[in-house]
Amino acid sequence: MTAFTLESVTKRFAGATALNEVSLSIPSGAFVALLGPSGCGKTTLLRLLAGFERPNVGRILFGDRCVASPRHHVPPEERHVAMVFQSYALWPHMSVSENVAFPLSIAGVPAVTRRSLVNSVLDRVGLSGLAARRPDELSGGQRQRVALARALVQDAGLVLCDEPLANLDVHLRASMIETFQRLHHESGRTFVYVTHDQAEALALATEIVVLEHGRIVQAGSPRTIYSEPSTDAVATFVGRGGLVEAVLEEPGHGRAVARIAGIPVKVRASHSALAGPARILVRPENVSLGGPIPARVEGLVFRGSHYEARLAIPGGTIVADLNTPGGSDRLGVAIEDAWAVPQESAPPT
Ligand SMILES: Nc1ncnc2c1ncn2[C@@H]1O[C@H](COP(=O)(O)OP(=O)(O)OP(=O)(O)O)[C@@H](O)[C@H]1O
Ligand SMILES: [Mg+2]
């Protein structure tokens, strides 16, 4: 079943087109990560889904019910959508359990039911012992859990999250990613999750949507976005690696040979790839030492389990993970696999 559909949705503000003819269909139970640079329209898309904004053009459907069009608007309180914000947006004068119970009170849920729903959701997010505290007596991660509990306690099939982990440190983020993952699985709800952080998107999403200047540049599974990015921007925004100028030969059946400084490298390519100049995306796991391509070490960073090396090769800079820092700044490398990024003029896949 489809959770929601956007049909050519355009949203303009005075002086800015925040979303430009965005079309998207998301199945129920998906975890969608909305990814893209600042100002690309991520929050606007969430606000349109929640009903806080109205589209200038196009329609939004929940299942097969139209909730928004230029002439028709279902208000937020009738959409059964819950939101989690970066800033938590908790009531400072209310306890944890009062904050979580608040949307249930508004919805007229009787006190007894309210108490049992709140206790059960606090248990699920690991906050049972803190029900009586006020937000200023909690850590950032605990506050974010309260906000998540408040979203999950509602009878909402769609949970919208706007950069919920942006204010947390690296360790808390990692543990909250697991919490989001578990609660998504357990609840079976559809999540739309805005983030700047591509690692978060790859870890959580069943579906990634990359926006740029108010348009979708690519939508697909994390694996597809990672291994077959449709533009240079997606290639460099998601995952590690580097783009290398090369000449593509013998394209066909999703494969090609890329010549890098005359040396042939077998690559994957789109079915519409053409022979000629191209850019090749090389991921660290595609690079091995002792090959024919000359490389110069431009930077070396210790990452605990390995050294991350920035290597200049003919046509570009790539990243390789090395076991030891090595003695020389001149190496020979082999590229085992790579992706020929479609030319910008080609239609996105
Ligand atoms: N209420 C508004 N009035 C005018 N312009 C707006 C309004 N809301 C958003 N915009 C503009 O629309 C564009 C998209 O904004 P949006 O907040 O959706 O971006 P975003 O992708 O969420 O960015 P960020 O990652 O910085 O949060 C921006 O150019 C922004 O300035
Ligand atoms: Mg935003």
Any overview of this molecule?
- With 349 residues, the protein is of the alpha+beta class.
- Helix content is 24%, strand content 39%.
- It is built from eight helices and 19 strands.
- The longest helix is centred in the middle third of the chain and has 18 residues, at 170-187.
- The protein is globular, with a radius of gyration of 24 Å.
- The mean pLDDT is 91.
- Magnesium ion binds next to α1.
End-to-end distance, in Å? 23 Å
Task: Walk across the major sheet and give the strand order.
Answer: 6-7-8-3-9-10
**Helix-residue proportion:** 10-25%
- How many beta-strand runs? 19
Structural category = alpha+beta
Tell the overall outline. Answer: globular
Q: What string gives the helices and strands in order?
A: EEEHEEEHHHEHEHEEHHEEEEEEEEE
Name every ligand kind in the structure. adenosine-5'-triphosphate, magnesium ion
Count of discrete alpha- or pi-helical segments spanning 4 or more residues = 8
Strand content: 35-45%
- Poorly predicted runs of 5 or more residues: none
Main sheet record = 6 strands, mixed
Oligomer: single chain
Overall mean pLDDT: 91
What would you report as the Rg, rounded to the nearest angstrom? 24 Å
